[in-house]
Amino acid sequence: MKYSILYHDGCDICALVGQEVVNLIGLANLDIIHIGLNPSKQIEAENKGVKAFPALVLNNGNILHFNVEEHEGSVECLL
What we know:
By secondary structure, this protein is α+β, with helices and mostly antiparallel strands. It is 28% helix and 20% strand.
C-alpha cells in the first residue's frame, strides 16, 4: 500500500487538486481513486471518514478535505 489515498470524482477541480497533490508528495507515494469510475470505493472512502471530494487520506488516518466553493463533491451526490 502507498502512503496516501486521494479520492476524487473526476471533475476539473478534482483534477487540479490531484495534480497539485502529486506535485507535492509524488505519485509513488499516492493511490488515486476516481469514485466515478470505481463506485465500489465510495463505501471505502465513507468508512475512512471522507465527507466530500476531493479528499486526501493520509497513512496515519487523518483526512484533508479541500474546500473548494465551486465544487459540490459531497459523498451523497454520487448515490
